[in-house]
Amino acid sequence: MTCTHILKKLNILLVEDERNLAHLLRDAIGDQFAQFTLAYDGQEGLSLAQEMQPDLIITDITMPQMSGLEMSSILHETSPALPIVILSAYSEKEYLLDAIDIGITKYLIKPFDPDELLDVICTLARKLRQSNRIALLPPFQFDTLEKKLFNNGVMVHLSRRENLFLSHLIDSPNHFLTTEAIKTALWDDETVSDERLRVFINRLRQKTASELIENIVGQGYLLRM
Description:
- This protein is α/β, with parallel strands linked by helices.
- It has two domains: 4-131, Response regulator (Rossmann fold, 3-Layer(aba) Sandwich); 133-223, Arc Repressor Mutant, subunit A, CATH 1.10.10.10.
- 43% of the residues lie in helices and 22% in strands.
- It has nine helices and twelve strands.
- The strands form three sheets. Strands 2-1-3-4-5 form a five-stranded parallel beta sheet, sandwiched between helices. It has a four-stranded antiparallel beta sheet with strand order 6-7-8-9.
- It is elongated, with a radius of gyration of 21 Å.
- The chain starts with a helix and ends with a strand.
- The relative contact order is 0.10.
């Protein structure tokens, strides 16, 4: 079973001080992903991870500035669900228990084949996709990774703007957006009338359920969870 369509949604951060290996892996598998970013030491990796919010991190252990385990431990405190794959030389196997303690998802011993790493990422990506399904008003779920709505596990065919609208509602405090915030988020600088917005919402309700999007009169719209 291929997972190419899942990988294309992922942003990957590789932290590896062996530049030849880092470039080899990027050239071998980097095109499979939406983004494949390189960092060459733990401190740079930590900064990039906090900035770009990757979906998955691949990291060496022994590196300048900060080890892969130190970096992973810091990231695990704020993002415990972030998948982290450790790459290590055979001589560093004694670090395995430390890696388990800080929530490392997978441990690969060098040398390894790039396809082996890709298989590991595929397995994690499928789990990641399932964990990114947010329960809305039953029987709806929204996949925050693929930005798609599901009804009893079956994808609902929505427009790009409709899926974007649901995504913005999910990410907003209390799942609420004002009328003006919706217009700005969905139509950028285009002038949109209240009537056009109501037509947009009504069309979305027809494709889903009238109760899914609640109108807060005079204020905006609320997503029912």
